[in-house]
Design goal:
Elements: H1 2-11, H2 16-24, H3 28-46, E1 49-52, E2 54-59, H4 85-97, E3 102-107, H5 115-128, E4 133-137, H6 143-151, E5 156-158, H7 166-172, H8 178-191, E6 194-201, H9 208-221, E7 225-230, H10 247-260, H11 270-275, H12 279-284, E8 290-291, H13 298-301, H14 317-326, E9 330-332
Parallel strand pairs: 1-8, 1-9, 2-3, 3-4, 4-5, 5-6, 6-7
Bound molecules: 5'-deoxyadenosine (5AD).
5'-deoxyadenosine binds at residues 68-69, 160, 162, 200, 229, 231-232, 234, 271, 306-307.
Length: 348
């Protein structure tokens, strides 16, 4: 095990069998060494800096019906909301006052927001806050739409691949296509975004073999950001009777991702903090270096429950800073772009 970890740290790669062996034989000592190497890889690339992103959940309408997700189109028990462009700008202003330099615009897949509406809001944000990065997390759209958003000034795009197992993907995402998801990710990269992929840990039917596929898929895609979090059960979804994903397995996946993609920007996800009170600190010690405080309007926040307990997360930067320091890190208020990304010249 030690030899494998050393090889992973030195070469940033392992083959399928080696990776599976690692996951199948993970014990406490190995985990400790894994986190040690992951932390070293992070420090070599970003030091002890932790970057902040202001998350704005601007609509919880969604045309999809992902089996695990609380805002799935078929959930009739939640109240739906949409923020106007003016309300989104207010959220950005709150974030700006806090010193945040990335705004993540996240929503369900909501066609109410046409390309024109989104281009408009991206332009407005860039005009008001030219020193800030705009990240979109709005799901699948066409190549041309993605290109228009990029040209309007969007810098980054988050679209988790959710699972790299075609079979599992099909079961959990009725009516959606695994191929189209991966097409979106490669389009986004080609256009020039900093791209974030990622997966959920603890999905029913997932095993170490599927996790290896997730990790190798990421290695092949070379995303700039990776979001990994445990499954958190939402009572109004078809997965209500299942068990959520584990903290430990998530930390292991985070650390392995850091070693496979040493320059990656890796958030300690909200789902992890919901699962374990010290989740954030633990993730920061296992290779994570990004935190995404929620700056959505209060009235909307409770309605954006992808899973139970999500809306209670804090936006108290002081408190976040305390946690970050407990993990031996410090908050860095710069934009926190990926080390080797430069925006392609384009019309803004
Ligand atoms: N548990 C954990 N993660 C979830 N997501 C959606 N629902 C859940 C859940 N119940 C994740 C998906 C999506 C991201 C925005 O939230 O991976 O891409």
């Amino acid at each position: 095990m030690k030899t494998l970890l050393k090889k992973l740290y030195n070469t940033n790669s392992l083959d399928r069998d080696e990776m599976l062996y690692l996951l199948d034989h993970m014990d406490e000592d190995t985990q400790e060494l894994l986190y040690f190497y992951a932390d070293a890889a992070k420090v070599e690339n970003y030091g002890k800096a932790v970057y902040l992103r202001g998350l704005i959940e601007f609509s919880n309408y969604c045309k999809n019906t992902c089996m695990y997700c609380g805002i799935r189109g078929e959930n009739a028990a939640i109240r739906r909301y949409r923020l106007t462009n003016a309300q989104i700008m207010e959220c950005c202003a709150v974030g700006d006052r806090l010193g945040l330099k990335t705004f993540v615009l996240q929503s369900g897949e909501d066609d109410f927001y046409t390309d024109d509406i989104l281009v408009d809001i991206i332009r407005q944000i860039k005009e008001c806050f030219p020193y800030c990065a705009v990240t979109l997390s709005i799901g699948e759209r066409s190549y041309m739409s993605y290109k228009r958003f990029f040209e309007a000034g969007a810098d980054r795009f988050l679209l988790r691949h959710e699972t790299a197992s075609g079979e599992l993907y099909k079961k959990l995402h009725p009516g959606m296509s695994f191929e189209n998801r991966q097409r979106c990710l490669s389009d986004l990269k080609e256009i020039g975004y900093q791209v974030g992929a990622g997966f959920i840990v603890g999905l029913p039917g997932q095993d170490n073999k599927t996790l290896v596929e997730d990790l190798l898929y990421l290695k092949g895609l070379q995303p700039h950001m990776v979001g990994i979090g445990p499954l958190v059960i939402h009572p109004q979804t078809p997965l209500r009777k299942y068990k959520g994903g584990g903290l430990e397995k998530t930390l292991i996946c985070l650390a392995l991702t850091r070693l496979l993609l040493p320059e990656v920007l890796l958030p300690s996800t909200t789902a992890l903090s919901v699962t374990d009170e010290e989740g954030m600190q633990k993730a920061l010690k296992a290779g994570a270096n990004v935190i995404m405080p929620n700056i959505t309007h209060d009235f909307a926040r409770e309605m954006y429950e992808l899973y139970k307990g999500k809306s209670g997360m804090t936006v108290d930067i002081e408190k976040i800073a305390e946690e970050v320091e407990k993990a031996g890190c410090h908050i860095d208020m710069s934009r926190g772009d990926h080390r080797s990304w430069k925006r392609k010249a384009c019309v803004i």
